[in-house]
Amino acid sequence: MSTAEFLSRTAFDDIITSLENLLSQVQALVDSLDPVNDAQVIADFQALAGALTELMNVAGALTEINNVEAALTAINNVNADLANVNTLVGALTELTNVEGALTEINNVEAALTAINNVNAALSNVNTAAGNIANINTVGGIDSAVTAAAAIDTEITSVAGIVSEIQTAASNIQAIIDAPGFAQAAEDARDKAQEWAAKAEDEPVETSPDKFSSLHYAAKAEEFFDLITGLTNYAGLWSGLSGALTEGNVVFHTGEFWFLLEDLADVTTSEPSEANTDWRLLT
Hints:
The chain starts with 8 loop residues before the first helix and ends with a strand. The model is unreliable at 1-7 (pLDDT under 50). It is elongated, with a radius of gyration of 65 Å. Helices cover 67% and strands 6% of the residues. It has helices spanning 9-33, 39-60, 62-70, 72-80, 82-90, 92-100, 102-110, 112-120, 122-130, 132-139, 142-150, 152-160, 162-170, 172-197, 213-231, and strands spanning 233-236, 249-252, 255-259, 278-281. Strands 1-2-3-4 form a four-stranded mixed beta sheet, with helices on one face.
């Protein structure tokens, strides 16, 4: 075995030094634990352990404690007003009675305006009470009073023309006859309108037939057209071509037709009652 396989003395010295240092640290730790073995320290630890249960209870009630803290202002307000609270407790019976009558109280509140109005009109109420007999009499004809009240403006207007009403009363027969005269006037007006404008071929009166001015004007126009046609007869429409002037008469579909407009080409306008270029001669 070579000398290289053995530890040097210097290496042993280092190990010894490290062990001595470790011994010093252990001794220091032992020294630091000596005060814990002191009787007072042990007593303090025991007292702390005894208070630990109360501390845990406080920790469990922490939410309630926080709630109390949040309501602290309100609690202080109640405490400051404690005398009134005690008074309220003393009046609890009366408050219960008020609660039982709450419906009646609300009814009174709802009718408060009407109550105030009655109070303001109390003198009038007293006056009415003194005239109750007359009020009862009026009550028996309340429907008539209501009807009169609904037309009070008209009643006032009639009162303002009482002299005219008296004049009308003295001429009542003429007033009664007036609608008949008015109807006769309307009938005469309607008859005059018939004599003036009743449609052609519709008699105004019968046995014998009598016709309106409009009827005879139409007949005169037709007669004029007929006479004109006899002098301006152009022949069969189907045999015509080219231009044809207003006033000419043609024969078509068994009837005579009077031309009302100049035509550039007569073949483009066939006579018929629907064609406004032509009028049927009857």
